[in-house]
């Protein structure tokens, strides 16, 4: 979901053809759902302690809390699967469902899982370094999913995304190229991220986690795609909805890798 000047762009369909079922995307959605169920069913007296241990508290690594309550590095991984509420979880999982299957299809399930975790860890590290004295637990899959968006945009820059923009009670539907969506999304993270530098409260949004995850996803993309020896390229007639296999309409639209 992409807010622009108070208006929300909600992607609900893409045009990239897929050959294999997205088993890792399904697994990640199920795992996030289970983790959220477990988190919300904790006793109230224990929940704060649980989040302090397994969400990401930057000050425990790079700030004053490091001296009295240093953190275990496992939280850079575990925070990826925790969420702050139902809306947070649903929006993250929906975005993963839109962008994840095409990326998993092209890179392979094991590589996709490893890539997702690396992007999530990089996102947490970027957030902690940008907010070293923060004592607020950071949690959520947004950074890892930002990496998936970055990879998708670099692999399929000319793919079309069908998006919905709600204007009051009237939904408007149109399409936008993946690279355009990604550039706007990244810009909407970068600007407030820069403005938040030095602040102790960033409004509850880990801007630098999104930035770090996206950057890692973009940078890792060239080494992710499987070779033709292990994965036959799509033929031109294997596209979806009248589009080419990479989601574009024009034959000259090629992936940027």
From TrEMBL:
Its EC number is 3.4.21.105. Its main location: membrane. Keywords: Hydrolase, Membrane, Protease, Transmembrane, Transmembrane helix. Signal peptide: none annotated. It comes from the Bacteria. SUPFAM superfamilies: Rhomboid-like. The keyword Endoplasmic reticulum does not apply. InterPro entries: Peptidase_S54_rhomboid_dom, Rhomboid-like_sf, Rhomboid_protease_S54. It is a multi-pass membrane protein. GO terms for biological process: proteolysis. GO terms for cellular component: membrane. Residues 71-226 form the Peptidase S54 rhomboid domain. One of its GO terms (molecular function) is serine-type endopeptidase activity. It is found in: Membrane. This is Rhomboid protease GluP.
